[in-house]
């Protein structure tokens, strides 16, 4: 039962642990897929955002000669640049700078003659790099609107391929703030747009003060991006030190990367809350099984104890029964077998006997007189003395001495012929005589207790009654013949 309980407990604990572990792994996998998909869709949105600006910049580059010769027609609210920026809500403005960094044209009204952006990172980059591609710089505060913008720029060359200026589109950080704001977030969730050098362009739900922070020490930039453009992994965020399960996707066209992170503590909490009922039910079931098991165990133990007690009392009862039946077969005065034992043993000895069974019946002579002379108590002692003498006769183990009743005794001799029974009777009478128990009231000259004996022997198929009758008649003969003698099949033998 204990082994069974142990097995059941082990089974329940193992099965539940496995189910919980599996459900946790499934939850992690679901969230990792969700994070990867979301980062992929955000990367697509970012790519489209910058691609649209890039197309506008390409258009400016295509028209650069006209622009440099007639910059006024490009500027202003009705200028060509304004026309290009109208369908692009992400744009803060379009600008064109000459090779000295002076503003030639802008989509935002009139040109400020003082405005010079030669010190800007993107301007210096294009001046120093002949790279014809679009450059996305770090977040700056717009000098025209003072809003935070991401500069997207393109180098403009003259006919000889020399640096001749820069076309700039500024993408509003607020555009991403608004777009990312549409996503429903749980506390601890994170959305971030970064360049591939690890510079943060925007992160939700963090304040703008984190913009331009370098996250290059994050595993995303040290290992993961070099292994795969899209993926998911768990790491500690460099922004707030919280561990998150991240999905990330690098843009195909631009050196930008988007990451979506879910705080693992919140995931664990959510998973725990949705499994708490199942866990409680399992623990409760387990406790119930244990309770029932121990109850049954206790019952079994009690049953075993009561069975043992029952067996002990049965043994005791058997022993007492044995004692009782022994007592029922014994004569209380003399300790010899009683009349019941006599009948039982005689029947048993005759039953199917192949050899003769002899029976000697003894009767104490003149015992009434003894009682009268010495009293009944002395009479009892006399009977006890006679019994003791008969008990100590040298007999075979199959012979049985009993008190037949009153002052009569009997010896049953299985497998004994009458002739041999006479010898036994002779020894018995001799032994009594030798005991010389005084009997002053006896009519016999010796004045001691004497016995008369009658011997009967069974014939094949003889019954107990027939044998008793034969012995009894012989005893009667012995009495008639003067007592202190033996009467049997072969006549009377006087001592
Ligand atoms: N003290 C005592 N006397 C007993 C007991 N059983 C029988 N008696 C007595 O034994 C006597 C037997 O007497 P009787 O049958 O007349 O025979 P008897 O006096 O021995 O004479 P015979 O047998 O003819 O020699 C009776 O007085 C019984 O009361 C016993 O257990 N104790």
UniProtKB/TrEMBL annotation:
Catalytic activity reported: 2 GTP = 3',3'-c-di-GMP + 2 diphosphate
Q: Which InterPro entries match?
A: Diguanylate_Cyclase, GGDEF_dom, His-kinase-like_sensor, Nucleotide_cyclase, Rev_trsase/Diguanyl_cyclase
What cellular component GO annotations does this protein have?
plasma membrane
Known cofactor(s): Mg(2+)
Q: Name the Pfam families for this protein.
A: dCache_1_like (PF22588), GGDEF (PF00990)
**Residue span(s) of domain GGDEF:** 355-491
Q: Which GO terms describe its biological process?
A: cell adhesion involved in single-species biofilm formation; negative regulation of bacterial-type flagellum-dependent cell motility
Q: Where are the transmembrane segments?
A: 271-294
A single GO molecular function, which one?
Answer: diguanylate cyclase activity
Q: What's in the keyword line of the UniProt record?
A: Membrane, Transmembrane, Transmembrane helix
Enzyme Commission number(s) of this protein: 2.7.7.65
According to its UniProt record, in which pathway does this protein act?
Purine metabolism; 3',5'-cyclic di-GMP biosynthesis
Report whether Transmembrane helix shows up as a keyword of the record.
yes
Please tell me whether the keyword Transmembrane helix is annotated for this protein: yes
Enzyme class, one word?
Answer: transferase
| Cited PANTHER family | DIGUANYLATE CYCLASE DGCM-RELATED, REGULATORY COMPONENTS OF SENSORY TRANSDUCTION SYSTEM
Give the protein's recorded name: diguanylate cyclase
